[in-house]
Amino acid sequence: MDTAVGFEVSQGELFHDVKSFFESAPPLKGSDSITQKVNEFVYQNSQLSGNAKSIGVVCVTSGGTTVPLEQRCVRYIDNFSSGHRGAASTEYFINCGYAVIFVYRRGSYQPYSRYIPEDSFIDLFEVSNNSEIQVCNSHASVVKKAIKEYHSAVDGRLLLKLPFTTIFEYLQILQVVAPSMSCLGPCGMFYLAAAVSDFYVPWESMAKHKIQSAAGPLDMRLTQVPKMLRMLRLEWAPSAFCVSFKLETDPGILLQKAEAALRKHQMNVVVANELATYKREVILITNDENIRIRQQNEGGDVEEQLIKLLVKKHSNYIECFGKDF
Ligand code: 9Z3
Fold this sequence. Notes:
The protein is α/β, with parallel strands linked by helices.
């Protein structure tokens, strides 16, 4: 999370920091295949293909990045994000007619299966009298709904899922997805709900093997992760509609920090949320207004209202921008 107040990095310094981040990162596994999948998905959902089924493409990022402390990683820094917001939002975007590139933390919540009870995968099934495996009656309707909706999204080419674990993988994937989406101009959207570490250990200064405790207390210097939101805006997809999130634990500084992020990174929207209430309430912040969105009923998703509003704002943006694109 952003801790340094007023620490500004010039554009030249940013480009330099980004270059050294990517140069020192371990190579992204399956990079060529990811690039190909993303390019095909974007093309199929762009007007260029002539038969686009979606009204736009949104890259939803979800879950938390890890920061490895050793190259042969035994230990890492992590954060609390479960990926529920990203998974729920993906479903609502698809309902609204979008195609979604879902960039998610391995093992985090997934669209369409987030209703399936946690820890009880094995409880969903039973062995019938003739030794066949079947879904228990108690869960049948939830499982059926999840399977149908999931397959309809994937088979309809409206959902592409790309997993990450580390901060390196997350930013390398974003570096592939964003330039690929730039051909969509204002029809592309970024919805950056992932909780991205602000600090990392550069690969070349990272211990190769497991850090030993015999050496006494551990002193470790973490480097700041370059502000990729600025890169996204300046270089990778300058005309896209960009939504980022600001999380704080102190309600007294939340709005001020979110408004500063909106200006500093030239986002179209910043969604402000507070740790204690983030499942029930978010505040959507734009240049013109702040809109508080609350969960409508116990167990309902705050994302339903949030995505509806964002879709409206995005379509206004396309309309204004479209004349010049
Ligand atoms: C968020 O604020 C998300 O809403 C949550 C969602 C992580 C709270 P869950 O995955 O939680 O449903 O459990 N995401 C962004 C958090 C973040 O790291 N923002 C940075 C910051 O606040 C800016 S990129 O400085």
